[in-house]
């Protein structure tokens, strides 16, 4: 059975998702730049649609699963099964106001204020939970300009670094939602489909687990093993293997964080380590 996976058709998230699938061995093979579908090899086919439309495609059964932002999943309000966080496209949906507005926190928003957003459902729900009566002004883009045009008093908009908001004279006053790319599925999928999607989760998860990790191998003196265990904790401690010619050395192998590799190599060297080798990891299944 060929499973259809809805993927974003353009933008940075589209590129990052394609790269992730390629690294997981599910190469996105398109016939042209404007192709609407692509083979992912084996049991999967990609269909390319707007990221905002993916929750609808999946909920309606046009696709068995899809990848899109958690903000868009929540805005759609459809009943979907959350399978995994792909850790891509991290951002925040925030409330922001003009610097000179006097609004420093969400509680400063007064009843009757107009709030511009591309996320009217999430905006309405957020203020309703707080017991604040506001008027939502739906916009389709360039949300940050709305207060300067007198269209709205404040905005609810996506940001990753906050730089665009600051550039437009706005400051964050509250976070509505933390978002990232998620793999979601149709709740009506049968057992066979769910089993295949579990295999997809394993493939994607193994790539994500390997990111930011390095595999270290070195020959170290046997008498230094207690201290080597402190340097190479690994996933469950280092793997220790006898060197064929015997002697005073053993080989140790471990997975370590990439950001710690500089100190790790120097520590192994100070313990008498030789033949130190560091390699990248493509996939990691714990």
UniProtKB/TrEMBL annotation:
A UniProt-annotated Pfam family: HisG_C
Gene3D superfamilies per the UniProt record, alphabetical: 3.30.70.120, Periplasmic binding protein-like II
Position of the signal peptide: none
Reaction(s) the record says it catalyses: 1-(5-phospho-beta-D-ribosyl)-ATP + diphosphate = 5-phospho-alpha-D-ribose 1-diphosphate + ATP
Localization per record: Cytoplasm
InterPro entries with a match to the protein in the record: ATP-PRT_HisG_long, ATP_PRibTrfase_cat, ATP_PRibTrfase_CS, ATP_PRibTrfase_HisG, HisG_C, N-reg_PII-like_a/b, N-reg_PII/ATP_PRibTrfase_C
Name of the protein in question: ATP phosphoribosyltransferase
Organism, scientific name: Myxococcus stipitatus (strain DSM 14675 / JCM 12634 / Mx s8)
